[in-house]
Amino acid sequence: MGVKVVNDGLIDPVFSVEQGNTEEEEMKVKKFLRGEVADLKFIKDKKLKGQLEVREELYVKSAKAAAKADKWLMPSEGGFLEPEGIEKTWRIRQEAIGTEVDLLSQRNQYDIVLPDLGPYTLDFTTSGRYMVAAGKKGHLALMDMKNMNLIKEFQVREKVRDVVFLHNQKLFAAAQKKYVYIYSENGTEVHCLKEHGAATKLQFLNKHFLLTSINKRENLRFQDITTGKMIGSFRTGLGHSKLLEVNPFNHLVAVGHSSGTVTMWKPTSATSVYQIHCHPGIITAMAFHSNGHLMATAGMERKIKLWDLRKRGELLQTLPCNAKSLDFSQKGLLSTACGSSVHVFVDSSGSQNYSHYMSHPMAKGYQIQKACFRPYEDVLAIGHSMGWSSILVPGSGEPNFDSWVANPFETRKQRNEKEIHSLLDKLLPETIMLDPTKIGSVKPTRKREKPSRQEKDAEMEAAVEEAKSKSFKKKTKGRSKPSKMARKKQEAIVRAKKPLLEQQAKEEESSTKKRKIIGGEEELQLPKSLQRFSKKAPKS
Amino acid sequence: MKVKVISRSTDEFTRERSQDLQRVFRNYDPNLRSQEKAVEYVRALNAAKLDKIFARPFVGAMDGHIDAVSCMAKNPNHLKGIFSGSMDGDVRLWDLATRRTVCQFPGHQGAVKGLTVSTDGRVLVSCGTDSTVRLWNVPIPSLMESDDSSSNEAKPLAVYVWKNAFWAVDHQWNGDLFATAGAQVDIWNHNRAQPVNTFEWSKDTTISIRFNPGEPNILATSASDRSITIYDLRLQSPARKIIMRTRTNSIAWNPMEPMNFTAANEDCNCYSYDARKLDEAKCVHKDHVSAVMDIDYSPTGREFVTGSYDRTVRIFQYNGGHSREIYHTKRMQRVFCVKFSSDASYVISGSDDTNLRLWKAKASEQLGVLLPRERKNHEYLEAVKNRYKHLPEVKRIVRHRHLPRPIYKAASLRRIITDAERKKDERRRAHSAPGSMPKDSLRKRRIIKEIE
């Protein structure tokens, strides 16, 4: 540094840039490392230590390679919206954005007016290529969003409460008036799932192939759509619920109840895994961040609350809004639909502190049913009472897709291939758990606890009962006199009690010994002048 | 206001012509892949199951001998040739690719007990109970070899008659000496009708002999007095000797760690020794239920194959206590000789039922040329399986082997016997004065004494 100061009095610019780069790289490597590097210092087994060291080295190497690829090889960069001067991002209207962006993106701003069969609810495939829209009065429409083609639309002529895609766009499920139906791409009814009943909300776990529904009678059901087997059917019993969401991190299914509680369920247990009381009244909407740590809930008391799920449901932030629908985008933007306007919040600092980012008022009288982000695009789709609309929200979508995870440009062959592979990798329902990173790790051994006082008493009682119930042989020559029998019985009881009592005495003795040792230490701590008055400890 | 939104034109993300490859884009972000560990576990489980489905180790049998196959030799210069000798004095050269006899070497009157090939692959040495050592020219493999093979017959280069019957022969690595085992150990030169040197430690018959692959002058023998002896050709007398409780049938040196050798013992176990430190075995390889007849190391030095009197062939890790693999068929009888092929991917066994059998060293390995993508997939599945091998379900599937009923029963019987012995020993120890019965491990227990 001293040399540099002598040279020109400035910090070498190249040096500072490099340092910034390495810091940024370190952050990225950390992201790809998926946790801390294991500490191998305390392992005594040299062979194991060597093996683990080699493996850890490999992990770091691959994380570095991934970070490098992330830095240099990504084909596209994310969107953004930057105000200049006194502009505020939430005052920028869609028309203004539309004039600035390219033609391809302009096609994503539209309103489709279907006033008769609304309000509409929407769902996207995981790649964001296809969308299915369901009007409450029985209109179902499947669309290819890449070239804005309507693939199929039909009317079921009864109430449709929810619609959800199954593993790809070939199949989708609709919760109708009495039953849940599965339709194929060209509108044929494939299945009628009567067991689900009149479901109010549907969700699909695409790694486990589980179709999940909640109905008016608070029944939560999990059905494996590959085998048709009902994996779990539980009564939640916490009040009427119309909300069902999947945590994308661990695939737990969250149910929002009218009592203001959110419960999380897995298909293998009849009780909820986790409960948070979020609102004093009815919960109206709920959403999960894609990293699974953050949950947003909206209540009737005009509040949106953000919860940290890692810290056993710590409340992070409260936003004022009467939201009917909530959704997190892939990049973590939060959309809220209140009445006839949509607001988008952003966590600009990365510290889970959300602030207002954009808003989009629709015409008065439009009742928004659902607002959801389109995956891998900067688009927010809004289903409302007059059809559906689509607006641009810069910076919401993940700019780079992975062909093997979700590919918006998938061909038929690739889709078939992927279907087979996803079926081969179908996860067992048991893998849905609070912390899915625990799979394959070692459970720490728990020390066996001592039996409690009550257990000891119960054991004693059982032994006494057994001794009492024992019958004695009938013997001659006055040996079976009632007095003798009674004495025998008494002796048997004493005999049964004896080992247990002895054990108790031993334990008590050891505990008093321990106490004595502690007491002895106290005695040693006495001042020297007083020590001669204390009892002398036996010399060992 | 500055705005940018994601906009992907179809041209940039799809192929231009239908002949092109589909374009692939990667994003390694962990947030896009949830439940990675669960997915990996499922893949490991599936890989383990697939391994079981594709485990077809038996490639084929080579028949032609009219008596039990007693010995085999690999040609170090030619991958697909293997020599075999039988109890009726027949010596044959086989082509492993076509599984046919290429050439026969007639001449031995009694059983052929030993076969070996010189390091340059030109001379075959055979010896047998007719007290002769025969040297043969190995035919040079030509393109026409597989056409009319059975009529091919070779003439011996030389026939040396000696005083006693021979039990085994081995050629020096990197030299032109070979050693025969019989009533004594004889060292021969190719051009001399009589042995160059003779070693004798005791009056008992030497039954197997093997030169060290690293040090050409060192050889290990086992004899019917239950001893394993190490000789140095530069000295006039044998170097070291240990006597075990049971006989050692065969010895194999580890080609990658040439100070270590493994002895196939009559007591169903194999014992790995360090030749410099013979007071204790390095590892005891248990699993066979009858005497182990022959042993051969893989050229990688990581595993070895054993053939046993219990009609099975097993493959062990060089440092593993139990076998990795067991091969058996209904028709295979007592196995007298086994060899690992020189590319470590096949195992050849010769048995009492006059057949040679060709097995894959890895039971579920795919034969033939693998495309790079296929190979990568295999590697990935192997890695995933290795990562989750400790989980109970994966472990159960990977470890499971079907055993023939007699072997299963014999194994459980052996387990009962050893358990009873152990228990008895423990009780005896508990009732004797402390320190009067020192505990000694199996690695030491089977050795009676070591003689320098």
Which features would summarize this protein structure in a list?
heterodimer; A: 540 residues; alpha+beta; Methylamine Dehydrogenase, Chain H; 3 domains; 4-stranded antiparallel beta sheet; 9 helices; 29 strands; 26% helix; disordered N terminus; B: 452 residues; 5-stranded antiparallel beta sheet; 35% strand; globular
Write up what this structure looks like:
Chain A: Residues 435-540 are annotated as: Disordered. Chain A: It comes from Penstemon smallii. Chain A: Residues 470-487 have a biased composition (Basic residues). The complex is a heterodimer of chains A (540) and B (452). With 540 residues, chain A is an alpha+beta fold. Chain A has 3 domains: 2-73, no CATH class; 81-434, YVTN repeat-like/Quinoprotein amine dehydrogenase (Methylamine Dehydrogenase, Chain H, 7 Propeller), CATH 2.130.10.10; 453-466 and 486-506, no CATH class. Helices cover 26% and strands 30% of the residues of chain A. Chain A is built from 9 helices and 29 strands. In chain A, the strands form 7 sheets. In chain A, strands 2-29-28-27 form a 4-stranded antiparallel β-sheet. A 4-stranded antiparallel β-sheet of chain A has the order 3-4-5-6, with no helix packed on it. Chain A is extended. Chain A starts with a helix and ends in a 9-residue tail after the last helix. Chain B has 6 helices and 30 strands. The radius of gyration of chain B is 27 Å and the shape is globular. Chain B has helices at residues 10-13, 36-53, 372-387, 392-399, 405-430, 442-445, and strands at 2-4, 58-63, 69-74, 81-86, 91-95, 100-104, 112-117, 123-128, 132-137, 156-161, 168-171, 177-181, 185-189, 197-199, 206-211, 218-223, 227-232, 240-244, 248-253, 260-265, 270-274, 283-285, 292-297, 303-308, 313-317, 323-327, 335-340, 346-351, 355-360, 447-451. In chain B, the strands form 7 sheets. Chain B has a 5-stranded antiparallel β-sheet. A 4-stranded antiparallel β-sheet of chain B has the order 2-29-28-27, with no helix packed on it. Chain B has a 4-stranded antiparallel β-sheet with strand order 3-4-5-6, with no helix packed on it. In chain B, helix 2 crosses helix 3 and helix 2 (36-53) packs parallel to helix 4 (392-399). Chain B has 452 residues and is an alpha+beta fold. The interface between A and B is large, with 67 and 39 residues.
